[in-house]
Structures are given as structure tokens and as C-alpha cells.
Amino acid sequence: MPLSALSATQEARRQIEICNACRYCEGFCSVFPAMTRQKAFADGDLTQLANLCHNCRGCYYACQYTQPHEFALNIPAALAEVRVESWERLARPQALARLFQTQGVALAGLLVVALAWFFWALTMWRPVSGAGFYAHLAHNTLVAIFVPAFVLPLALIALSLRDYWREVGGGRVRWAHLMRAFDQAARMKNLSGGHGEGCNFENADRFSNHRRVMHQLMMYGFLLCFASTSSGTVMHYALGWEAPYPLLSLPKLLGVPGGLMMVAGAVGLALLKLRADPALGAVRVWGGEMAFILLLGGVALTGLALYAATGSALVGPLLAVHLATVMVLFLLMPFSKMVHGFYRLAALVAEAGRPAPSAGGDT
């Protein structure tokens, strides 16, 4: 069968079997030690290996069997396609995942709809009293809008992860497995390369930790912003301290640095993506991934702008824009690149619970 006629899973299996015979890249990341446990790979095994892959691309540039060799190996692209297919296949509904994973225009269109809706809501539901942005939309109204928009997508992701766990044959989860997986995720270990020098994502001839740092800025910035919102919720309901909060309050001390980190991370990731070779990833989702990066940056930037505009006539319009970006981010969690963090963590937990590979170092 010609290579062009192979499905994404069949092509990944062909390439992984060649890699397993060679094993030159054994210490590069978690993928290569994991594949040494077996010689034949079921579909679930390939799904697990694909979600362990962080697309650092070091293996491609080190490989002697890439084109023009007849084996034509391109492991980063092969696993990227299987990885994206797994997110689409396990999503509910699948059609939305296929749409928003691949089409940045679709994400932009949803954002336009959300913008129009929030401008309408701020006009129709403006409260008779309130301070700060609560003068434009009441606290209870915001809760009624955003709690379902946050909880329901998380429930869909939980169902998808349950199916993922079954597909890859994940076993019983122990505390040690969780700790190891969270440690690797927190350090972004698989973006550090085989020897901690970084990866070759944007430059074939140079190892770099830029992508790792940008991911860390984005992840920890997002967590700080989430902690900011959570602390504000506790202060509102448990302590009776309502927004707006001063600069030296916990929501602002967490949220402002978090927002700045997210903006920096989004700019850095977008620039790296523009420099990288698209042929070493899932080409069909490039636009959707770039749109998602810009959306994350937009959420942070509009939040910072809203805080900077406190007390001015710009609060209303900026509030509508910020709420629209947050709403789209929440609604698309199961159907956009946002879901990759959940799957990669699940893959690391599953890997931590398996026997040590027959060869290789720290995985």
C-alpha cells in the first residue's frame, strides 16, 4: 500500500515500528522509552504515545530516516495527526471539535456572536446600582451566565477523558502516579529535550528552551488568573467583600501578574509558531491553533485593559469585549487546543502507572 493511502493511525504505526527497531532517540522524551515496552502497537497504544508527544521535533532533526530516505519518517507530524484525531474522536459532539480544531475563522465567528450578545446584554440588563463593572452587569447575572458555561464544558471533557483512559488501557491511579505526572507537567519536562537543552521546534540547528518558557508563562499565568477569580469569589461570598478590589488585594496581586504572563506567553508562542515548519505538525489544524493562542492572549489583554480603564467611560465596552473572549474560551474548552492540557496530563498519569521501560532513562 502506498504511504499516501495509509490512515493517520496506520502511518503512525509504520513509523513507530521503525523507530522501535532503531531506538536512536530513546532518551529524547517520554515517547521513545514508552514504545520500547512492546513490538506491536494497538490503536490505543498509538493514541497514548501521540498524547505523550509534545512536538518538540528533536527526533525529526536527529533522524537518519527522514526524506529523502525511502522510510520517509516524520514522527512529529505522524503523532500530531493521531493526537488531534483522538481529541476530535473522543469529543462530544465530534463535529464541533473538527470545526474549531481546524478553522480559526469559526472561532473568530463565534467571538463576533459573543461580542454582539454581550453588548446587547449590557444594554438590556444594566442594573440600577452597582460599583465598578457591576454597575454594567450585576454579579448574580454574571454568575448565572458563566457558571454553566464553565461547568458544562468541563463535564464534556471529563467524559472524553474517561473514554481516553479506556482506550489507552489506563490502570488504577495511585497518589505516586499523580505526583509524578504533575511534577513533569509543572516542569514541562518533555519540552526540555533529552539532555535539558531544550527542543528544536522553531530552529533545526539550535536547541532552545524558548517554547518551554512560553508554555510556562501561559500555564502559570492562566493559573494565577484562575486563582484571582477564585479568591474574589471567596471574598465576595465568604467575607462579604465585593468588587471592585484595590491593587493590593489578593485578586489583583494574582490577576495582574497572571495577565501579563499570559500576554507574554501568547506573543511568544505565536511568534514561535510562525517560525516553525508547519510540515512537522498537523498541518490542517494550524489555523485553529493560532486562533486559540490569540484568543488566550486576548482574554488576558482585555482583562488588563478593563482594570486600567477603571472609572472611565471605556469600562462598559471593554467589559463586553472581555466577557466575550472569556465566554468563547470556556465554551470551546472541549473543542479547541485548550483540551490538550487535559489529555497530556492524563497521558503522563497513565505512563507513570506502567512498568519501567526495558531501556531508557527518566521518562
Keywords:
mainly alpha; transmembrane; transmembrane helix; 363 residues; NarG-like_sf; elongated
Secondary structure category = mainly alpha
What does the main sheet amount to?
Answer: none
Order of helices and strands: HHHHHHHHHHHHHH
- Average pLDDT score: 91
Radius of gyration: 22 Å
Q: Indicate the proportion of strand residues.
A: under 5%
- Quick one: overall form? elongated
Taken together, the total number of domains comes to 2
- Poorly predicted runs of 5 or more residues: 359-363
SS field, number of helical segments:
14
Keywords: Membrane, Transmembrane, Transmembrane helix
InterPro entries: Citrate_utilization_prot_B, NarG-like_sf
Transmembrane segments: 99-122, 142-161, 217-239, 254-274, 286-308, 314-335
Protein name: Tricarballylate utilization 4Fe-4S protein TcuB
Quick overview:
The protein is mostly helical. The protein has 14 helices and no strands.
Structural notes for this entry:
With 363 residues, the chain is mainly α. It has helices spanning 8-22, 31-35, 43-52, 58-62, 75-90, 94-102, 104-124, 139-168, 175-187, 210-237, 250-275, 286-308, 315-331, 340-352. Helix 5 packs across helix 6 and helix 11 (250-275) runs antiparallel to helix 12 (286-308). It is elongated. The chain crosses the membrane at residues 99-122, 142-161, 217-239, 254-274, 286-308, 314-335. Keywords: Membrane, Transmembrane, Transmembrane helix. This is Tricarballylate utilization 4Fe-4S protein TcuB. InterPro entries: Citrate_utilization_prot_B, NarG-like_sf.
